[in-house]
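Example (one chain per record):
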Amino acid sequence: MNKKTRTIIQYIFFFALGLLFVWLSLKNLNKENIAQIKKSFYGAKYWLILPVFGLLILSHIIRAYRWKLLIEPLGYKVSTLNAFFAVMIGYLVNQGVPRLGEVIKCSMLNRYEKVPLDTLIGTVIVERLVDGLSFLTVLGITFALQPGLYSQLVDSLFSKPGETNVDTLPGYIILLGFLLIIAVATAAWMILKRKTFKDLLLLLKKIGLHIWQGITSVKHLRRRGLFIVLSVLLWTIYLISGYIGFFAFAETAHYGMKEAFTVLSAGTFGMLAAPGGIGAYAFLVEKAMMVYGLNAGVALAFGWILWIVTFAVIVMGGLISFVVMPYYNKHRKIEESRIDTAENTFS
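Predicted structure:
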């Protein structure tokens, strides 16, 4: 199977996965839920979209500047605006083809800042490792603040609205089921690829080494403290955006930071599960909010409105960046040429 065919299959798979989550989020809705959705949307405080929109733009600026900090120790000084444009274009591409956006993001910066592509890809890997550790930290805080939340989420995910816990499988059984699936998939991989347990251990060791290298690479940053502060600020902005979103609906206005952590955790899983989080984000946020007794219709409306704002920021920011980036660099090149001419005149 050639690379193009694999890419097409991957695209179809992730697109189908997104549609599956959309179907899962809608299949159990009854007339009462639909009425609640309409009521929630009619009574929503849409002006709150503006501060959330602004915060999400700020988060992308912070992400761009943090990426710039990773590039600096490698001997390259890049424009913050170019890093921002590249980040937004990358996110836009990721909405259609997961992970391709990371390559495009690096290609755009390589084109205008002349930083080697392999160097940029290395920094993106470090970025993703830091994000992964940050997400695990958020997840840990979420479960620490709410003991027993895991089993409640499992019950919410694998039961129909109104179904009692007696009718559903216990959380630990489902967890064991997932572990069994992973074990079977690993065994199938070993058989098909003719790998031994030694090969598997070497692969796990290699993955662990890459993770450790990513963690320790932060030590070599010139502005390590600033990088850590920006990483914390980035996830704090995500948390606050969800918290502000609670005030959009009268039914969710009484929720606080504890629930905001749950929304952040569920929403992040959703963004990872399908391209741009389509379907998955709203579905997982809906199930998470139902744990707190929120009506399924309102919970779904809340999940969709948060996703729509996130999607709108990426689409608008990505399209604008795609158009503006060439003009910005053309103007920048002219200015640099003028400065060089002036310096040569007075030298």
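Caption: The chain has a mean pLDDT of 81.
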